[in-house]
Write a structure and sequence with these properties.
single chain; 5 helices; mainly alpha
């Protein structure tokens, strides 16, 4: 089996796992915590994000691996493929990088980082509500975009 087929299979697997993760947040996690009060909502999301932020090794392997294998596949595919095959590969590459990864790093991760800085135990109810409103709508909106592009 040639290197392009190997990287294509691996990038397909890893990108699919990332798409599944953001999809799970869209249809399970965020709806599951939606009805919690502001403090509990923020605390639960912060706890989930802490697992990710603490460099959970499988998560890091899948997330960063999806980027690296897809870049490798795109480079190999650009050299080895032509016509429609090359076009499909480059469109898939662009959709994943600009529709999943870019929003992750410019919107979702910064929102997560801001939430991590919040001392929820010392915030008033009004401050908790404001923190949630500044987080929830934008995070869900961009996660939905990531999900659609990931699929």
């Amino acid at each position: 089996m040639d290197l392009l087929r190997i990287t294509l299979g691996l990038s397909t697997l890893l990108c699919s796992l990332v798409a599944g993760l953001v999809f799970a947040f869209t249809i399970v996690v965020m709806p599951g915590i939606k009805n919690l009060n502001d403090y509990e909502y923020l605390r639960v999301f912060k706890g989930i994000d802490t697992v990710i932020q603490n460099s959970q090794p499988i998560f890091v392997f899948v997330w960063l691996g999806s980027i690296l294998t897809l870049i490798t596949t795109a480079i190999l595919g650009t050299v080895q493929l032509d016509g429609v095959d090359r076009l499909v590969l480059l469109v898939a590459f662009a959709a994943y990088v600009f529709g999943v990864q870019l929003p992750t790093f410019i919107v979702n991760v910064p929102l997560n980082n801001l939430l991590q800085l919040q001392d929820l135990n010392n915030m008033t109810e009004l401050a908790l509500h404001e923190a949630r409103m500044n987080f929830e709508v934008r995070w869900i909106q961009w996660n939905t975009i990531r999900t659609l592009f990931g699929i």
